[in-house]
Write a structure and sequence with these properties.
single chain; mainly alpha
């Protein structure tokens, strides 16, 4: 592929999205560029404060546990309160926690702050994902999620490099910088991002039509979506395991910690360099096909770790499951948006976020126990098996629920009309009963409304 064709491909990948999306994209990039707390927290606890490695691991796990509660909370607030106020409030809460870590020193205080920070950071995700689904036409939603995920990883790569150099200034300084970056992110959202929560529907006489009430129990009773969440949980367990199991496996084979640092850096490099190309290659593909493919790549990449014996071989396994990650994350987010009624997008994204948070808490504990017990080989056989089971589940259980909409986005009847503000699109929407009887859009190529009120922390 020539440089010119790559440039055309990149241009096509980033073109055609509403202005509001790019403000959200910028807020994600700014936020993640200053994301120093999680990157350096374990080093700060063990080196600076003298806590044990066990305590450091427990504190990181508490961050994930906070997310288990924060994700559904954020989903409810997103639907009831609005996308933008939820984002601003939770970003500011996360910033407060990051700043607090620069000053608290007791073990209980640190554990409490990190738990609350995990809740705040995870609570913002449903509002971000719901906003993207609101403002971006349906046939571009997966591409938009992929671009936002690219911003997240680009920012994280910058933070890792910058934080490594800035650590000379002290860990507390990094935490304050993290807080400032998160505040700047909140300011961008408050000043530039429109509120996208759908307006109340009206009947032909102009009277408001009450939407069917959706609770968390209602969401969990949605059989196709529940299946999607459970399968995503399996994939998340596989995806999270290498972050704990890989360094332990490499150390067990006599490789140095610096070798692990180089190998795991491949993950971020591959995403930053190739995410746009992967977006282009997977655009318009069947979501079921992509979810099956990504699960198999996770299974292959992690399973092959059991056979690796050198840094190069381990790096190859990281490349394989990283490609699976680049395919899975935006496809799963788009599938969630597809199954969610528009007035309950926050709750659906909140429940989906719980699967990531649960995996973030369970997988590190489980991976460490398996490595210490049966050994690393058993861990990688288990992840390969789980990934294969997830692929089979996607192929057999979700084919009908995630069938592609036959509507042609190029059809003039489906074409988007610009709204008065020019920040989004307005499309006619046909309302039908979803899989649980919830009223939702049967065919949507764009949002019903982009008005004026608002990745991830």
């Amino acid at each position: 592929m020539s440089i010119d064709s790559l440039r055309r491909s990149a241009t096509a990948t980033v073109s055609g999205l509403p202005q509001g999306f790019w403000w959200l994209w910028l807020s994600t990039l700014v936020n993640r560029t200053g994301a120093f707390v999680l990157t350096f927290l374990s080093l700060y606890l063990t080196i600076e404060l003298g806590h044990s490695a066990w305590f450091a691991g427990l504190v990181v796990a508490l961050h994930g546990l906070g997310g288990v509660a924060g994700s559904p909370l954020g989903g409810v607030l997103t639907d009831r309160w609005g996308r933008r106020p939820t984002m601003v409030t939770m970003h500011l809460a996360a910033a407060t926690c990051a700043a607090a870590l620069a000053f608290v020193t007791s073990a209980w205080a640190i554990a409490t702050v990190v738990l609350l920070m995990g809740a705040a950071m995870q609570a913002v995700r449903p509002s971000i994902n719901a906003t993207i689904a609101d403002m971006v036409p349906a046939h571009d939603v997966r591409r938009a999620y992929a671009l936002n995920y690219w911003a997240l990883n680009l920012g994280f790569a910058i933070a890792s490099i910058g934080g490594g150099a800035a650590v000379l200034l002290g860990y507390r300084t990094l935490f304050v910088v993290d807080a400032v970056a998160t505040v700047v992110c909140a300011v961008i959202v408050f000043l530039r991002l429109p509120e996208t929560r759908p307006e109340t529907r009206t009947d032909p006489a102009g009277a408001p039509v009450a939407a069917v009430k959706v609770s968390m129990i209602t969401v969990l009773r949605d059989a196709p979506f529940r299946t999607l969440v459970l399968l995503n949980l399996l994939v998340c367990l596989v995806f999270t395991a290498p972050w704990i199991g890989l360094p332990l496996t490499m150390t067990d084979q006599g490789l140095s910690a610096s070798s692990y640092g180089i190998v795991i850096a491949v993950n971020g490099i591959v995403i930053v360099v190739f995410q746009l190309l992967v977006n282009k290659l997977t655009d318009k593909r069947s979501p079921v096909l992509l979810l099956v493919l990504s699960s198999l790549l996770f299974a292959l990449g992690t399973g092959a770790t059991a056979l690796a014996g050198s840094s190069v071989a381990f790096a190859v396994t990281v490349v394989i499951w990283t490609v699976g990650e680049m395919i899975h994350v935006p496809t799963n987010a788009a599938a969630t948006a597809r199954l969610a009624p528009e007035h309950a997008r926050g709750r659906y994204q909140g429940v989906m976020g719980m699967s990531w948070a649960v995996a973030g808490f369970v997988a590190p504990v489980g991976a460490g126990a398996i490595v210490d017990g049966p050994g690393p080989g058993v861990l990688w056989i288990a992840t390969a098996t789980i990934g294969a089971v997830a692929a089979l589940g996607y192929a057999t259980l979700l084919r009908r629920a995630l069938a592609e909409d036959p509507a042609d986005p190029e059809d003039p009847a489906d074409a988007a009309e610009p709204d008065a503000s020019g920040s989004g699109t307005v499309e006619p929407v046909t309302v039908s009963a979803g899989p649980t009887g919830i009223a939702g859009p049967a065919s949507t190529t764009g949002p019903t409304k982009v008005s004026d009120t608002a990745l991830s922390a």
